[in-house]
Amino acid sequence: MAQNSARGVPARADGWRPQDSVLNGLIHKCVEEAYRRNSEAGSMTAVFGGGIVLLVLGVILAAGTGNPLLAVLVVVVLAAGGLFYAGVNAPAPQVDPLRILDVMGGPGNLPAGYLVYPPAWRAGLPEYLARVSDRQLAVAVRLCREHPGSIADLLRLVITAEQHAHEHVYGRALTESDVFRVAHRATAEWARIAPATMLAA
């Protein structure tokens, strides 16, 4: 079942968060660049469009009135008013969150531990996790520190573990502990045979 309500950044019981300064810095930079680039693109489009309209208006006024000075004055006043109006009423720039980490392959390609890293939640994780249930996310958060793969790998493992656990509960309701038990065994085995974990503890 998909999650519909807004989620906050999940936290592990031990308070652990990834400490890879290089990757953390890259995520911060991607977030800042995405919002800055989007803001600049929107502003420049409005400025260029307005400039062309004012230029045409100035030419028409100069030709119609025969007074170029008046045309320039009108254009300057309109430009100042337009810039003020645009600055006050400009909508907040819209950024596609799922595109913020394109340079890294998207939020699903982050190491699993970044499920609990707040800046990653500004970089598309809420949208990426929109179809993940609360139980699946809770299990993934419990396993994210030791899982050697990506967020996408961990979620696939948890979803598969949930399906497997569901087949073995024998008539009772499936719990988070049931899913965790199956997923933890798989994660421990994966971590054992992996050449190295992607996140140092």
TrEMBL record:
Q: Which domain of life is it from?
A: Bacteria
Record keywords: Membrane, Transmembrane, Transmembrane helix
Give the residue spans that cross the bilayer: 45-63, 69-88
Its name, as the record gives it, is: Uncharacterized protein
- The scientific name of the source species is Actinoplanes teichomyceticus
